[in-house]
């Protein structure tokens, strides 16, 4: 993704590897993306695709013995990977904040919610406890918690799931960060609360002008609020584009699978969703060639040998570049997606596109699952 103005965050060729007893886990395998000021990037993929590891690495939370990190994470001109821990601590929670996936685990059960937010405020601001508490009450009101002056002294278990998530957002916003990373901010919440949380993030982005990275497994979550989407699979970005362009014309079979697995209000109620066959591959011993080929209904024999590069698709110059890592020819991909939209099954779409059916897709692959 390129932009005229210098992006707020730029990730370049990021690799994160963990040394384990079973081997080296290549959790993030060379990804690039940018986030502009006041813009939202959605990073989408199944569990185990490397989304959260990339987000945690931005904050320096994967630094540990046995971890190898390379590449660059440039935030306002500073490479975060080269900063010592003491300098990174000044940025973490202040200029860059994160809403963690499980709010019940992220909040300490033995401390009042308000006291934990007060601590976040005083860690980066030279203010009294009374001033920090007043700021905390203001923040709880900002994120829509009713009667914040009273609820500030409640414990986490006294909050509902949606309220805990709002409290986590309040804590992240305590120091008015320039970049907010939200890791699965709507997980385990009902649909109504999900919509409220996403609307809250969208409103706060407009009011504070911050950049947002939303990490999720659900394309539907980011379809309305993300400006750009990056689809991750097996530690790599396999497709990235402006949201409207990606949803209107997805180019990667994995993206097709994610979109086809989203429930819709159209069609008969008895119609089943179309899951992606198999499971995510091992990041210790990933498949050869295209990492998605064991699960891909459209894979050809050479796809097991050739590792695809992320290539730019010609498009409007005003939009962020649409890039995809797929070995199928562009015209073939478009014919396949058109057939799928028309209600064809993958095997029928292959026949219509003039390609042989390369493999069965009615079960998980024998290896790398």
Short descriptors:
single chain, 12 strands, eight-stranded mixed β-sheet, 20% strand, alpha/beta
Question: Can you describe this structure in just a few lines?
Answer:
With 369 residues, the protein is an alpha/beta fold. It has 13 helices and twelve strands. Among the domains are: 106-175, no CATH class; 249-353, no CATH class.
Distance between the termini: 31 Å
Counted by DSSP, the helix tally is: 13
Spatial shape: globular
Radius of gyration: 22 Å
The largest sheet, given as strand count, sense and whether it forms a barrel, is: 8 strands, mixed
Mean pLDDT across every amino acid position: 88
Instruction: Report strand %.
Output: 15-25%
Classify the secondary structure makeup into a structural class: alpha/beta
SSE pattern, N- to C-terminal:
EEEHEEHEHHHHHEHEHEEHHEEHH
What's the number of extended β-strand segments? 12
Topology:
Layout: E1 9-20, E2 23-35, E3 40-44, H1 51-58, E4 67-75, E5 78-79, H2 85-91, E6 96-99, H3 103-106, H4 113-122, H5 129-142, H6 148-151, H7 161-172, E7 179-183, H8 191-208, E8 211-216, H9 219-222, E9 228-233, E10 236-242, H10 243-248, H11 253-260, E11 311-313, E12 322-324, H12 330-341, H13 346-353
Parallel strand pairs: 3-8, 3-9, 6-7, 7-8
Antiparallel strand pairs: 1-2, 1-4, 4-5, 9-10, 10-12, 11-12
Helix pairs in contact: 4-5, 4-7, 5-7, 12-13
């Amino acid at each position: 993704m390129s932009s005229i103005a210098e992006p707020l965050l730029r990730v370049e060729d990021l690799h994160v590897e963990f040394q384990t007893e079973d081997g080296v886990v290549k959790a993030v395998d060379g990804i690039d993306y940018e986030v502009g000021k006041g813009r939202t990037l959605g990073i989408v993929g199944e569990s185990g695709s490397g989304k959260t590891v990339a987000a945690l690495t931005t904050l320096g939370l994967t630094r540990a013995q046995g971890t190898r990190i390379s590449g660059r994470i440039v935030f306002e001109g500073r490479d975060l990977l080269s900063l010592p821990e003491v300098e990174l601590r000044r940025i973490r929670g202040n200029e860059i904040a994160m809403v963690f996936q499980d709010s019940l685990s992220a909040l300490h059960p033995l401390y009042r919610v308000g006291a934990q937010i007060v601590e976040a405020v005083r860690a980066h601001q030279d203010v009294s406890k009374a001033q920090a508490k007043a700021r905390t009450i203001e923040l709880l009101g900002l994120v829509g918690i009713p009667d914040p002056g009273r609820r500030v002294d409640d414990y986490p278990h006294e909050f509902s799931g949606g309220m805990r998530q709002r409290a986590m957002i309040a804590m992240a916003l305590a120091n008015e960060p320039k970049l907010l990373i939200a890791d699965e901010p709507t997980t385990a919440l009902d649909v109504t609360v999900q919509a409220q949380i996403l609307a809250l993030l969208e409103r706060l982005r407009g009011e504070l002008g911050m950049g947002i990275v939303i990490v999720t497994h659900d394309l539907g979550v980011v379809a309305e609020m993300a400006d750009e989407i990056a689809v991750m699979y097996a530690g790599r970005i396999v497709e990235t584009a402006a949201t409207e362009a990606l949803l209107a014309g997805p180019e990667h079979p994995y993206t097709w699978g994610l979109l086809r697995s989203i429930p819709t209000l159209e069609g008969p109620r008895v119609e089943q969703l179309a899951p992606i066959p198999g499971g995510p591959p091992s990041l210790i011993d990933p498949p050869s060639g295209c990492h998605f080929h064991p699960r891909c209904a459209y894979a050809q024999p050479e796809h097991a040998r050739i590792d695809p590069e992320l290539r730019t698709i010609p498009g409007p110059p005003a939009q962020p570049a649409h890039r995809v890592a797929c070995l199928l020819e562009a015209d073939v991909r478009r014919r396949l997606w058109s057939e799928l939209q028309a209600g064809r099954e993958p095997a029928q779409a292959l026949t219509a596109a003039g390609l042989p059916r390369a493999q069965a897709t009615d079960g998980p692959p024998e290896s790398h699952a």
